[in-house]
């Protein structure tokens, strides 16, 4: 499950860039930081320098860096248990310049459309989400990943020269009776800085 989930977040960053006139990605993903996987939930706050966010995660969150277009970098912080049953991901696309309010709305809509129109996806309509005075969108989508029905819960923001996505991924059967407290805690702890 995790491989597809990580690819999904990479694809979203690429689709956002393509939607705003960027070019196709250069396929090179390299670990930029390492951390030992936690053996169990142990919540901690991550607030990497120059990334524009802070959030609580239940596992170590090593950063992976990808060049998604010439000179445009995406950083992904992926917190997941060893069994790969869920993931808490923050993706940050570093853009060349800050987006205008109109462009920011177009980027958010393009990212939503990319998920909502993925093959077999069922997505809620996006709702406005405000963090630190900035408005983004939040929604959940159910889709298939390596033969499993998964729920993708996300909040997305255009924050200055960054596109920031907070994403929790879990098996759809786990979410049938509501989202687990871990997803709620992750999303509620998200901040832009």
Structure description:
By secondary structure, the chain is α+β, with helices and mostly antiparallel strands. Helix content is 22%, strand content 40%. The protein has three helices and twelve strands; from the N terminus they run H-E-E-E-E-E-E-H-E-E-E-E-E-H-E. It has helices at 2-19, 101-116, 181-189, and strands spanning 29-31, 44-46, 53-57, 63-69, 72-79, 86-94, 122-123, 127-131, 134-145, 148-159, 162-171, 191-192. Strands 1, 4, 5, 6, 7, 8, 9, 10 and 11 form a nine-stranded antiparallel sheet that branches. A hairpin with a 2-residue loop joins strand 8 (127-131) and strand 9. Helix 1 packs antiparallel against helix 2 (101-116). The longest helix is centred in the N-terminal third of the chain and has 18 residues, at 2-19.
How many individual helices? 3
Radius of gyration: 15 Å
Query: Please, what is the oligomeric state?
Result: single chain
What is the helix content? 10-25%
Alpha-beta content class: alpha+beta
Shape designation = globular
What is the residue-mean pLDDT, rounded to a whole number? Answer: 81
Strand content: 35-45%
**In angstroms, what separates the terminal alpha carbons?**
31 Å
The total strand number stands at 12
Largest sheet: 9 strands, antiparallel
Uncertain residue segments: 13-39
Order of helices and strands: HEEEEEEHEEEEEHE
List the helices and strands and how they pair.
Elements: H1 2-19, E1 29-31, E2 44-46, E3 53-57, E4 63-69, E5 72-79, E6 86-94, H2 101-116, E7 122-123, E8 127-131, E9 134-145, E10 148-159, E11 162-171, H3 181-189, E12 191-192
Antiparallel strand pairs: 1-4, 2-3, 3-12, 4-5, 5-6, 6-11, 7-9, 8-9, 9-10, 10-11
Helix pairs in contact: 1-2
């Amino acid at each position: 499950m995790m491989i597809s989930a990580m690819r999904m977040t990479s694809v979203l960053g690429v689709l956002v860039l393509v939607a705003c006139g960027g070019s196709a990605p250069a396929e090179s993903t390299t670990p930029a930081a390492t951390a030992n996987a936690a053996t169990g939930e142990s919540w901690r706050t991550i607030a990497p320098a120059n990334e524009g966010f802070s959030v609580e995660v239940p596992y170590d969150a090593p950063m992976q860096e990808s060049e998604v277009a010439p000179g445009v970098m995406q950083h992904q912080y992926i917190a997941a248990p060893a069994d790969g049953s869920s993931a808490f991901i923050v993706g940050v696309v570093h853009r060349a310049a800050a987006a205008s309010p109109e462009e920011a709305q177009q980027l958010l809509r393009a990212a939503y459309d990319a998920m909502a129109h993925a093959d077999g996806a069922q997505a809620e309509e996006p709702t406005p989400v405000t963090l630190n005075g900035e408005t983004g969108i939040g929604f959940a989508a159910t889709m298939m990943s390596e033969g499993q029905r998964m729920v993708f819960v996300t909040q997305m923001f255009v924050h200055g020269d960054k596109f920031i996505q907070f994403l929790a991924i879990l098996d759809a059967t786990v979410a049938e009776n509501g989202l687990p407290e871990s997803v709620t805690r992750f999303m509620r702890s998200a901040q832009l800085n």
